[in-house]
Design goal:
75% helix, 7 helices, mainly alpha, 169 residues
Length: 169
């Protein structure tokens, strides 16, 4: 946060480039809500298929709010730093190619978990973050705002952890 505030003070246009201060259009809001709904539906369906039941406990909301400080730096690095840096290279011109590369990088970054490598017998975080990273990259390249992506990430992780990872042990 100190880096963002320091650079933002010296170069306010950086905040826009990084997707922090860019206003959200109605289309950006709608797309963000659609991504959130589709993500939650996919997680719920997978969790139900794995466990035969699905529960939503009120503590999940607390976990989502508590996860925001972890989700924001991840989205900042993924989109604001890596994505905008790679976008300047000629080989990465075009949304699809760049989004695929960033999705793969985001997936590989999730191979490690503090508890063990990989986090589960099936590397769930890697498998899920490949399309999630791809979608986040496409969203950022289209709307240039990481705030909805941070919110989606903060909702997504606790649901994925409780509904899928814990079922796989």
């Amino acid at each position: 946060m100190g880096y963002i505030l320091g650079r933002g003070r010296r170069n306010p246009e950086k905040l826009d480039t990084w997707g922090i201060t860019r206003p959200l259009s109605a289309t950006a809001w709608g797309t963000g809500l659609l991504l959130l709904a589709l993500s939650a539906a996919l997680l719920a369906t997978t969790g139900y298929l794995l466990a035969g039941t699905l529960s939503f406990e009120s503590r999940y909301i607390t976990e989502m709010v508590e996860y925001i400080p972890a989700a924001f730096p991840q989205q900042f690095v993924l989109c604001s730093v890596v994505l905008t840096s790679l976008a300047t290279l000629p080989v990465f011109q075009g949304k699809w190619r760049l989004s695929i590369v960033v999705g793969v990088a985001f997936s590989l970054a999730h191979f490690w978990t503090p508890a063990r490598i990989p986090g589960t017998f099936i590397p769930v975080q890697m498998l899920i973050t490949l399309p999630a990273g791809f979608g986040a990259a496409l969203y950022f390249l289209t709307y240039r705002n990481i705030l909805p992506l941070t919110a989606i990430h903060a909702v997504f992780y606790p649901l994925m952890h409780h509904w899928i990872e814990q079922q796989l042990g």
